Amino acid sequence: MTDSDATTDSIAPTLVAVVVAFTLVTLVSGYLLEANWTQAVLVGGFASVVAATSAWLTARREAGGEDD
């Protein structure tokens, strides 16, 4: 596997996590919690940052990038 393959493998889960978290959290906070849509988008954005960080850390742990 080349370095570009490794980069692609670690970016895909992060992008999926960002899109899914943003969409779900924005829709839930907008429709179910009846928040202002501006607030819903901001909360969805924050959730997507948290999801991206989590996906990146998980991929890094699976690759053995951390020294224990």
Span from first to last CA?
Answer: 25 Å
Classification by helices and strands: mainly alpha
Q: Which residues form runs of ≥5 with pLDDT under 50?
A: none
How many helices? 2
Biggest sheet features: none
Percent helix range: over 70%
What's the rounded overall pLDDT mean?
82
* Oligomer class: single chain
Give the helices and strands as they follow along the chain: HH
Nearest-angstrom radius of gyration? 15 Å
Total number of strands? 0
Shape estimate: elongated
Q: How large a portion of the residues is in β-strands, by DSSP E?
A: under 5%
How would you describe the overall organization of this protein?
Helix 1 runs antiparallel to helix 2. The relative contact order is 0.17. Helix content is 82%, strand content 0%. The model has no long low-confidence stretch (mean pLDDT 82). By secondary structure, it is an all-alpha fold. The two termini are 25 Å apart.
Q: Features of this protein?
A:
single chain; 68 residues; mainly alpha
Describe the SSE topology:
Elements: H1 3-32, H2 37-62
Helix pairs in contact: 1-2
Quick description:
The chain has 68 residues and is mainly alpha-helical. The protein has 2 helices and no strands.
